[in-house]
Amino acid sequence: MESIEVLNKRLKDHYGSDVASDNVIFRIVWANDELEKRLVSETAEGLILLHPEVREVKKYPYLKDLYVLERFVIVPDEHHMELAGKKVSYEPIWAYCDGRRNPLPPIWRATKLIIDSLYAALGKKSLRKYVDSEKNTTPEGRDQRIQEIQEELFGDETETGDALRYKEGIVVPSNYSKDGI
After folding, report:
1. Helix %, strand %, coil % for the chain, to 5?
2. pLDDT digits over 42-79, tens only?
């Protein structure tokens, strides 16, 4: 796995920075570390405030222990007050996890596919470069390519597979016996 620093450098080199602020367009962050100033109407303990006030709160309380791909965007006018008057913000695009919210490591190929898909959906670029080559035009070749992409984006999706992948599990040989025979 490439380090987050290397991935963020690749994101900057490949997708660039905002001209006005020099902030990178895309970045990968650790969700637990991200804070933001928001206009809140209650305290962390749940007490309702008489007047809403700006407080620094966790940005992703719902994405604990995950890496998040963020995009630098302009905040719509109706949300300026909620975000303490900010006109630009980093907003989540993708959380690196499987279907059970188990963490997955960010990898470049999957990250690039996510961003290119986003751009294609916005009509900015085409996904033409992701069309299968002639060698993968058979149904078996196409299915194998789809399986590879799914594994990169979503992981193995089994607890055993994830434990083995992250070197937290062991394999017991099929000829193993408890008696040592």
Report:
1. 35, 25, 40
2. 887 888 888 888 888 899 999 999 999 999 998 887 76
